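Study this chain:
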Amino acid sequence: MSSMLSKTVNRNKVFILNKSELEGKFEVSYYIPKIKNLEDKIREKTSKKLSDYILKLSSGATPSVTEIEKFYSDKENGIPFLRVQNLQPNGKLNIDEVKYINKETHENYLKRSQVSEGDLLIKITGVGRMAVASVAPIGFIGNTNQHMVVIKTESRAVSEYLANYLNLDLVEKLATRRATGGTRPALDYHALKSIPIIENIDFSILEKAEVLKRKKEIQATELLTSIDIYLLKELGIVLPEKNNSLQSRIFTTQFSELSGIRFDPDYISKYKFLVNQKAKYEFLPLGDLIKQSPQYGANEEALEKTSERDIRYIRITDIDEIGNLKAKSWKTALNTDDRYLLNYNDLLFARSGSVGKCYIHKEIDKDAIFAGYLIRFVLDTNKANPDYIFYFCNSSIYKFWVSAIERPAVQSNINSEEFKSMPIPLPPLEKQIEIAKNIRNIRAQAKKLQEEGKAILEKAKQEIEKIILQ
C-alpha cells in the first residue's frame, strides 16, 4: 500500500496504513512511522508492560489556594506537597522547593495519594516532557497533586530501575505517543500502564555518569557561592553570625524606635542591624532608583483573550533560585493588554509565596507578560546599573533583608512599598558595572560546568539507548 506514495514524499508526514494496523487510536501522531517503528523494536524485545510492576496506583488533587489556612501549612509543620516541577529526569526527587499541606489534609482529603520512600512518581499531564519519573528518597513522607501518579512497586530497586528506564529519551517518545489532548497533553492510566518495559538493562553507565555530573554541579555551586563572598567584600558588608543562644534572642528597644515600623521582634532586630550597617558605600532605598511607580502583574483569569498574539506568561514558578528562567517550563497567555508587556532590563520581584525572588528580563525575541504575584520595577539607568541591582538582589544581604521585611504568615508576602524601602549599597556607576561584569563571568563559568555535566549524562543515556536498539 505504501508503494502508492511517491518516493519524494516525506514518509514521516504522509503515510498510509491498513485498517488492520489500527490499535484503537485514530490520532495521526500515534502512527508516525519513525515512532511506530521504534515501538515495534521495543515490543520485539519484551512482552512486559509497566502494569506488570504496579502494586498500587493513585493520583491526588490540588487543594484550593483560596482556602490557604484550611489546606496548607509551612515547612516546619506541614507535609511536602509535590508538583510536576519536583520531578527530575535523573530519577531523583527535587524537594528543595515544595509547597506544604497540613497534616489533616494529608491524612483525610488526600489520603489516597500519600507518598512514602521508594514510591515511583510519574508525570501524566502538562506541556513538555511526558512521563518524567522520580523515586521518593529514604525517609520521605509527602503527597501529590493530580498531574502525577504515585506507584507502589515491589521494592525501591524496582522503582529506581523503572525511573531510569522511563527517563530514557526513546521511552519518553513512547509515552508521548500515548498522550492525548492538544494544549495540555495527558496520559490516562491505561495508556501509562501500556508502556513496554525491557528488563535487565545495565544502568551502571548512567550511575557513573551521574557521579561525574554531580562533581561538575558541585564545582558550579562553589563558583556561585563565591559570588556572594566577592560581592560582600566589594561592598564592605559583614553579615551577623548566626547565634541561637537565649541571650542573643532577647533584646530591648525604645518605644520611640517603633514609630512607623512593625512590632514583630525578628523584623526589629534585623532592621536595627541594617540601619546601623557600616559599608563602603551609602545605602539608598530602591524607591530612589526607579523612574516609574512599581506595577503588579496580570492575573491570568483577568487577561483579555484573542487569537492574534501568543505571549509568554512568566510566573514565580518559572524563576529559579538565582533568578534565571527555567528551561521549557513557561506557559503562554493570549493577551491584548500591553500594560503588562516586559521591556529589556525590567526587574520582577515575587511578592508572595517564594517571596523575594528576583528576575531581570533580557529576552527580547518573544513578547512576555508577568503574573499577578510579581511586581515590576523599572530602574533609572542614570542612577543604577540594572545588572548590579539584579545580582545584589540574589545575594545573602538581600535575603537577610527579605527575611526581616516579609510578614510572618502561612504564605509570607512583601508589598511594593516595602520593596521600595529596600536599602541598597550604591557604588558609583562605573564600579557597579565592574561588579556586574565580574559576577556575570563567574555565572557563565558555573553554567558551562552545569552544561558539561548534562552532556556527560546525555552521552550515557545515548549509549544505553544504542545498546537497547541493537
Remarks:
- The CA atoms of residues 36 and 330 lie 30 Å apart.
- The chain has a mean pLDDT of 86.
- The chain has two domains: 21-201, 224-443.
- The longest helix spans residues 429-469.
